[in-house]
Amino acid sequence: xxxxxxxxxxxxxxxxxxxxxxxxxxxxxxxxxxxxxxxxxxxxxxxxxxxxxxxxxxxxxxxxxxxxxxxxxxxxxxxxxxxxxxxxxxxxxxxxxxxxxxxxxxxxxxxxxxxxxxxxxxxxxxxxxxxxxxxxxxxxxxxxxxxxxxx
Length: 151
Prior knowledge:
The chain has 151 residues and is mainly beta. The chain has a single domain, classed as Jelly Rolls (Sandwich). 13% of the residues lie in helices and 38% in strands. The protein has 1 helix and 11 strands. The chain has a 5-stranded antiparallel beta sheet with strand order 1-2-10-5-8, with no helix packed on it. Strands 3-9-6-7 form a 4-stranded antiparallel beta sheet, with no helix packed on it. A two-stranded antiparallel sheet has the order 4-11. β1 and β2 form a beta hairpin. The longest helix is centred in the N-terminal third of the chain and has 20 residues, at 3-22. The chain is globular, with a radius of gyration of 21 Å.
């Protein structure tokens, strides 16, 4: 294949790809799936308090499965605490800083980067949050999802 033909094929492929992106999306059957775009996610909580959350599925306050997003804003961390049930966490964006034990020491936390998976084991003491940049977590658990301060 000559360079000219190869370049022409690349250009044609780029035009086709661009047309596919620019085309109107095909309506989806709401009986088959539901989705929310980022702008449609209903974040709750006061950003001034350093954390927001959005429940995607279920109700963390009631028995049963729940899925939620938690957004830690920069320079905010929880104090040592535990949860009565296991929780499964995916770091969606940013770096999540996690420590274990009763002694709160943000300088001795472990960075967990985006794409990581973490299990919070039931009744084990930990603390967590964000340092210089925000972090978004997806948390899946079994409700009721309570947070118990470590004493």
